[in-house]
Structures are given as structure tokens and as C-alpha cells.
Amino acid sequence: MRGRARHPTKHAAGLAAAGLRTHTVAMEMDRRSLLQGAACAGLAAGLFEPARAQLQLAAEGPRWVVTTQTQPWKENEGAQVRPIRLGEEADVVLNHEIRHQTMVGFGGCFNEMGWDALLLLPDDERDRVLEDLFGPDGARFNLCRMPIGANDFARDWYSYDETPDDLALRNFSISRDDTGLVPFIRAARRHRPDLKLWASPWSPPSWMKRNGHYAMAHNQPGWPDNGLPQGAEGKEGEDWFIQEPEYFDAYARYFGKFVDAYKARGIPISMVMPQNEFNSAQPFPSCCWTPQGLARFLPHLGKEMGARGVDIFFGTLERPDPALFETVFADPQAGPLIKGVGAQWAGKGAVPFINRAHPDLPIYQTEQECGDGQNDWRYARYAWSLMKLYLRNGASAYQYWNIALEPGGKSRWGWRQNSLLTVDIQTKAATWNHEYWLMKHLSHFVRPGMARIEATSTMGYDDVLAFAGDGAVVAVLSNALAQPSPIKLMLGNRMIELTLPADSFSTVELPA
After folding, report:
1. How confident is the model at residue 61 (pLDDT cuts 50, 70, 90)?
2. Tens digits of residue pLDDT in 234-263
3. Residue 465, C-beta contacts closer than 8 angstroms, at least 6 positions apart
4. Taking Cα atoms as reference points, which of 510, 512, 506, 491 lies closest to residue 93?
5. What is the dihedral of CA 253, 254, 257, 263, to 10 degrees?
6. Which among 414, 412, 410, 430 is positioned nearest to 422, based on CA atoms?
7. Nearest residue to 451 via CA among 464, 470, 437, 438
């Protein structure tokens, strides 16, 4: 993970857009010279040491895996690797000398409804599914998210202490989690013992909120009722957590008791974020905060988390406004506690500005946008566009949302969403959806500690992400065309030639 950024004395509402545009133009002007330099260096190596290069290439061929809409994860053997030729140009230059963020990992979120779906499977099949998610031959997920209390894919609303005015938290208990989240996480950790977890609440206990209810908005007509009284609706841009020191203190201790309870069950929590989507008034568990309200709360939370060695990230940010982060980060008491930023949904619009202003501050993509329950190829293609946006702008973690759901993916509050896996209620059969294979194209090959590297093209090919580390270079590519697309990748003194199948995703892994 990258180091902690120097805390600013003041930062005015994020970067100016003009400044970012100037930086982008300068980068574009440098690309051709960068390509020419890389080509000359590679060609020189190829001319001076052709015999050794040929010998290495014969012994160390690439691994190439392809997924199409009808055939996922097919091992291909058609990639050709050879020394570059005099005057030859590549479609894409992979430069592992230019390194960007160091990757922390990939994963999803542990939700109650996901575990309920997996419980429909026979024990041996459920174990195979978890191996395919967390095991060395599967997606190799190593970093996952979990809720603190109920989220929108819980069976229903709950918190760990719904006793009104229990500021001493005498009635705190995570016993509800022993029926869902705890066995789910333990089952995953059997396949990935070093699995890292971070957590955030969707809502504090209802009595800690101004409206006394878990929700902040009425549901849509025809959708399940959430029981929110008329006049109790929340509003973005206001603090709906009670802004009193004794409530901040109790809520910070609530986080601490959560961390302690999971540690007692053999499940360490490495990081927390104070509130999921802190600007959004939702019909499911939610709570709006202002940046000033979060800045008031974080010193209390920092005291409890610091005593337990648990990091605090800012988030999750779901608005394209970097000033929401900068306001809290500039606070002299709250800012130094922030070790990273989590962004999702429209928060992706703030990520380039935050990364540009604080290049050493880790950024996590915390929840892939959720789809509509159809789990179709169209949405997998959209997910690829999200991956490129976040990872090219400094995200060191990329996280899917629902791991498993029943067909249609409907939540307790009526929202249909996608999932990596669908479990049929009648047949008890599990089906991997397209987005699982797309996630695996990155997470199986891109290991923690690898760095994103420069992948540059003057040929109009902009559909590639590349990484290097552990003696390997990984290129993840897409061909969105309706016909096969030949492509040449240059890596040092080597040219890799392959033909990408129509409408496909590919991962190519080579020795560095």
C-alpha cells in the first residue's frame, strides 16, 4: 500500500478542472516521445542480443485466457512472442518502468442475502463455489467488505443495539451476525486465511438519529414499505446523526465493540469507514452527514480505532465533488486520522481530482455499481468501463457488491441487483454470471503488491489495463468489435502478437 499523504493546511474544493486538463494535455503531448523512446530501447536490446532473446522467448511463453459471452475462461495458445523488428510499431507499448499505484486487492461484500443464497446449495457445492471465489485456482479474492449492522441486502433492518438511549451500550450484541455474516466470512477464510476485511455502517442505531428511524426516505409506490413516518424524511446536506458529544462517544465505542466482537470470533477487521454513502437519503438503512459532521465525529472514532490498530478511511463517497473530502481532510483534528478514501457510484467523478491532489493517499473503489438483476453481457461491458476509470485514476482496490443472490436479485426493499453468482431456488444449481469472469480476469492474475504500469498507444487502442510485479507482466484487454481484432503489444525487446476474438475480454500474462 502506498504511504500516507502529507496533510494539507488547506485545500480549496479539490483541483481546478483547468489544472487537470493542462496535466492531461501535457501527458498526451509526451506520449509519442515516450513510445518512440520505448521502441528505440526495445529495438536496441533486440538487435544486440537476438540470440538470447529468442532463447528466452522459446522457454517462456505467455498465458492467454479469453472470455466471450458464450464461452468464459478459455485458455488460448495462439499468442506469438518474438523480438521486435527494425522500424516496427506496436499497437500498445507496455512499459513496466513507469509504475503507478500498488495494488491492494479485489473482492466483494459479505451480505446476509448472499449467505442465504449459498445455503441453498449442498455443502460440497457451496465449498466449491467458495473455492472458486477465494482459492488459488479461482478469483483469488483477498480484500472484502462487510456491513456494520444491516445494509440494503440484509434480511431486514437491525443494529447491534436498538435499546433507546443506551449510551452505555449495555445491550450491544452481534448475535444476529452469528446466523449470517459470521459463518459466511468463516467459510470464505477457510479458502483464504489471509483475507482482509473492512467495514462500514449503512445506519447507526435508530435512536442515535434525529428521525429515530433506520431509513431516510419513503420507498417507491408498489415497493415494500419501510414504515418511515410522514415528516421523518431526511435530507442531503444536513446531519441526521445527533450532533452531541455523548452520542459521538457512544457511536465510536459501538464501532469498537463491533471490532472486538469479531476479533473474539477469530475475524480481524483492518479498516473502517464512518458511513456508507453519507450524502444519500435512502428508503433502506442510511444516514446523511455533512463533511463538518463527519469531522466532528472522526476524533472520537479515531480514539477507539487507534487503540485497536484499525485504520480509518474517508467514505464512502458517492458524489462527484472532491470538496466533500477536502473539507474533512483539511480539518486539523480529523484530517490526520484519514489513511485513505473510498468511492463508489457518482463518487468516481471525484476520484481523478483526489488522486491528483493526493497521489500518495490510497483510494479504494468500494462498491461496483449494482445493475438490475439481469446479469447480462451488456452490464459486464459497463463494468469494464468502471474498472478502467477507477484503476487508471489510482484506485488500489476494486470491489464487487453482491457475491451471490437468488434469481432476479431482489432486496428486502425491492431493488433488483446483479451478483457474481446466481443460485436457483428450485434446482439448487449455481450459475456464474458474466461479471464473475470479468472480475477473475483481473483478480486471478493481479496479485497484491503488483503495480499498475503504463500502457500507451498512438494507434487508437485504449482498451487495456496493465500491471507488473512478482516477475510477471499482466495485460487485461477488451475487443468490443463484432469481428476479431489483431493486436501487437510491445514489452521491452519483445513483441506479442495475438488476435482478440470478437466481443471478448482477454488476459495475457508474461514473464517480465
Report:
1. confident
2. 999 999 999 999 999 999 999 999 999 999
3. 387, 388, 391, 392, 442, 452, 455, 475, 476
4. 491
5. -120
6. 430
7. 470
Q: pLDDT band at 509, cuts 50/70/90?
A: very high
Q: Is the pLDDT of residue 26 over 50?
A: no
CB of 144 within 8 A of CB of 399? yes
Contact 141, 443 (CB under 8 A): yes
The Cα–Cα gap between 213 and 281 comes to: 12
Cα separation, 111 vs 99, in Å, equals 35
Q: What is the pLDDT of residue 32?
A: 43
Whole-number Å distance between alpha carbons of 209 and 106: 33
SS3 278: coil
- Report yes or no on whether pTM surpasses 0.85: yes
| pLDDT band per the 50, 70, 90 thresholds, residue 66 | very high
Give the DSSP H/E element, type plus range, for residue 452: strand 451-456
Tell whether the model's pLDDT for residue 35 goes beyond 80.
no
Residues 6+ apart with CB under 8 A from 146: 109, 110, 181, 185, 197, 198, 199
Which three three-digit cell numbers place residue 142?
A: 483477498
> The cell 447491534 sits on which residue?
160
Residues 103-130, mean pLDDT to the nearest whole number: 98
Q: How confident is the model at residue 60 (pLDDT cuts 50, 70, 90)?
A: low
440 CB-near residues (< 8 Å, 6+ apart)? 73, 138, 139
In this model, does residue 3 exceed pLDDT 70?
Answer: no
Q: Helix (H, G, I), strand (E, B), or coil: what is residue 406?
A: coil
Residue 266 has pLDDT above 80, yes or no: yes
Q: Are 72 and 504 in contact (CB under 8 A)?
A: no
How far is it, in rounded angstroms, from Cα 226 to Cα 282?
A: 10
Distance CA 214, CA 212 (A): 7
483, 484, 486, 489: CA torsion to nearest 10: 110
Q: For the CA atoms of 291, 295, 296, 298, what is the dihedral angle to 10 degrees? A: 130
Residue 67: which H helix or E strand, with range? strand 63-68
What CA–CA distance (Å, rounded) separates 140 from 137?
A: 7
CA R_g for the chain:
24
Q: CA 352, 358, 360, 364 torsion: positive or negative?
A: negative
